[in-house]
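[SOLVED] Predicted holo structure with flavin mononucleotide

Edit: marking solved, answer below. Original request kept for reference. I posted the sequence and ligand SMILES and asked for the 3D complex as structure tokens.
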Amino acid sequence: MQHPQYPRQSKPAQATPVRPTIYQAPMEGVIDHHVRALLSRIGGVDICVTEFVRVTHTRLPRRVFTRLCPELDQGATTPNGTPVKLQLLGGNPKAMAYNAAKAVEVGAKSIDLNFGCPAKSVNNSDGGACLLQSPSRVEDIVAAVRNAVPAEIPVSAKIRLGYQDRSSYLDNARAAEAGGASELAVHARSKVDGYRPPAYWEYIGEIREQLGIRVIANGDLWTLDDFKRCREVTGCDAFMFGRSLLARPDIGLQIQALSDGRDYQPLQWHQVAALLYDYYSTTQDLYPAKYLGNRIKQWLAYLKLSYPEATIFFERIKRHRDRELLEQAFAEQMQPADSHHADFPHTDINAA
Ligand SMILES: Cc1cc2nc3c(=O)[nH]c(=O)nc-3n(C[C@H](O)[C@H](O)[C@H](O)COP(=O)(O)O)c2cc1C
């Protein structure tokens, strides 16, 4: 593989007062357009990414893109105007190129390529993290997509640090850049690392030093303290939040306030419950009755990591699909803490 010349000296880290750019991480089966609308409305999220569109050998019809990304019909932004990248996953450069061009034709303004998915079903059919075993394939896929879409459409990539181990992290990062990626999100684990802590942020720092494009740090940024440490370790000016954004939906606002030197009162549980209710109300008629409340329970599994109240709420509704009971349970949760259960002190959500 041909590599362009890379700067060998260390690039200085961004000066700390600069407001970092905050990305929502793609999450298949979890962060759909409703969740993107909600998270971007809360604020502090600069860029969203869709779940992946699976590309095999076929030419996908328009509806496949618009189903996963209805925002394509609205200028590829969420209702509040936050840009949404369309993510593609696949191992065949020609098919990826064709479908990227199609995505742009139907409204995509920015394409992201998935080289991180660890799922067996995906890896067995030649997509996601398995491609990291061959950096030249990463380069070929990025280059094919880059060449297939107009110059003004950014093409980015998202990688893990490797497949079996983390040894290929620089080769794959360089391959993405050599293929023409405009920026690179790095989930700081190998495929085999799965989602087990820790996330190895120090590798991201090295990638950032070696590449000329923006590198976005991702993995286990659960708290404001995690963010500060990751910024220090990586020197990055862009950060991506997935499970952590669901656990702490205003983490972006917290980071913005920190960067601006402003005080900020993090969302309290009753406010989060109201947002969750909003999501429930918007989506309740979209699923068969036997699944009513399932998406809420899924989100509560993440919220439990930051809000102890979420555990209580989850226990209350976990066996129920009854509309009336869910409404009643939500009504209780949306009461401010002092009128609701004064004996339950609100947790400091900035604590690790
Ligand atoms: C349920 C789930 C679905 C995911 N789906 C995708 C996906 O479609 N595309 C992708 O690039 N990464 C996907 N990821 C990885 C996340 O984008 C992110 O890299 C990872 O969760 C680490 O960030 P976090 O610690 O903030 O969650 C997924 C992760 C989870 C837990």
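OP edit: The domain at 21-260 is CATH 3.20.20.70 (TIM Barrel). Thanks to everyone who chimed in.
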